[in-house]
Amino acid sequence: MENWKAVVYLLASGQGILLSLALLPVRKQHPSNTFLGLILLVISLELLNAWGMQVKYHSSPDVFPFWLLQSYLMLPPSVWLFAQMTTYADFVFHRKHLLFYIPAGVDIAVQMGWYLHFRFVGHSIHLLDIKAWFLFAEILPILWMGVVLAVYAQRLLVISGQLKKEAIHVSVIHLVKIYGVFVFLLLLTILWIAAVLMYMRVFSLIELIITLFLFALGYIGYFNPAFFEVPKLLKKKTAGTEPPLFPNYNDQVELERLTHAFEQHSLHMRSKLSLEELAGELNVPSRYVSYLINRYHATNFHSFVNTYRVKEVIRKINDPAQQHKTLLALALESGFNSKSAFNQVFKTHTGQSPSEYLLVKR
Q1: DSSP-based three-state secondary structure for 215
Q2: Residue limits of the HTH araC/xylS-type domain (predicted)?
Q3: Which of 41, 216, 262, 287 has a CB 3.0–4.6 Å from the CB of 20, allowing a cystine?
Q4: Nearest CA to 309 among 344, 269, 339, 281?
Q5: What's the pLDDT at 165?
Q6: b/e burial code for range 54-75 (CB count within 10 A of at least 16 → b)
Q7: How many CB atoms lie within 10 A of CB 348?
Q8: Whole-structure pTM over 0.70, yes or no?
Q9: Domain boundaries in the chain?
């Protein structure tokens, strides 16, 4: 049984590490993924550490001390930045935010120095046996996570109310990511408190939850990469209290023109439609078009256009005059430029693959 558990832990942690490395590179379009990658890296190393204890890897002669790269102090700032970037449309990451990672850097540096001292000099005191260090490396991240999750929860409550009030549509898959990550982190933190502060034997439960989360996230990411393209939901300041970003334009008028351009002139059927081209059609700045889509539709330009393309494909599927055509032909006519892009986007918006949807409809 223990061998099977070790194998599962190794597979899940390996998958989590690979996924985190794929998300870590900074991308201008989806910067929140960098911090999701850091979160996944920390919990993946935690599970890998559990695997090491199962197979007694830590005591092997040629051990690589991977656990030294892990610091619980990396979680709170990463969760906070992930929350900010996925719930505030106007949040901008600055270099000063890197200061939040100084405690994690200190933690990792001290652990490495202590480990080298142990290997080459030897010592009899375990680092966590030092009360001050225990408070810094174990208690501080728990308290910090509690504060961060409280702020995160408050922000999600505000978002829920504003989405309902303003009737803003956000795809289910985006909400699953934002709320799902929060629920996972909340549960993990509660169990973390139970283990460290209440001395409860919940480590097996923590490892099980991390394993299931990493497998689920890896599965979703493999079959639906668009899952990681989360829109920033709402502006940081409430409407009416912030100065308009584009005072020379009437948002409601321009929104109607934007909708008209797609519903009446079918701009989405242009396979290479760009933000700049759309802005040119509307004779407004491209930044303003991006603002309208982000602020009032809670998504980005590409997702907005693809929504219309999916609707167009569905309309054609339901049109008896179009039923002699293949799905790929319908997709290309609707503005998609490849089969893979069509399949991925269609499943993101409908929850079904095009062939599954067609099977049900026909």
Answers
A1: helix
A2: 256-360
A3: 41
A4: 269
A5: 63
A6: beebeeeeeeeeebbebbbbbb
A7: 21
A8: no
A9: 2-228, 251-361
